[in-house]
Amino acid sequence: MLNAAKIVAMVGTARPEQARDFYQNVLGLDFVSEDPFALVFAGKNATIRVSRVPVVAPAPYAILAFNVEDIAKAIDAITTRGATMARFPMFQQDARGIWTAPDGTKVAWFHDPDLNLLSLVQPA
Predict the structure, then answer these.
(1) Which CATH number goes with the domain that contains 43?
(2) Which helix (H) or strand (E) holds 80?
(3) Sheet arrangement for strand 38-42
């Protein structure tokens, strides 16, 4: 039934101007549209709807992940544009902030302007 439906990721923002700059210029997503309710961006295989909300209550876990072929290259690209990689004491992260899972998957985290936790993932 829903396995044929296009999935749209949703993220909240109380700072739409900063969110637009971040998702478009820092992450390099294609800007699609803006209306009084949301900003819409497109990536390779998904749409991200950044909904305008009065207050964002950031989750204590990543709410959006970007699968990448080369995590180090992706980190270098977004940090050059202003993203800051997050560090967590429960994970052993390298100098770039990359944690390697037991199966070899590599993960790194960063926040958007509303402190939503996002991640880069390089599958094993």
Answers:
(1) 3.10.180.10
(2) helix 71-80
(3) 8-13, 47-52, 38-42, 30-34
Per-residue pLDDT reduced to its tens digit, 59-94: 999 999 999 999 999 999 999 999 999 999 999 999
Separation of alpha carbons 77 and 53, rounded Å: 29
Instruction: Give the span between the Cα atoms of 31 and 19, in whole angstroms.
Output: 11
Q: For the chain, how many helices (H) and strands (E)?
A: 2, 9
- Name the residue type at position 69: E
3-state secondary structure (DSSP) of residue 49: strand
**Which residues form the domain of 84?**
2-55+62-122
pTM of structure: 0.92
**SS3 helix, strand, coil % of the chain, rounded to 5?**
20, 35, 45
Integer Cα distance of 13 and 113 in angstroms: 8
Structural domain count of the chain? 1
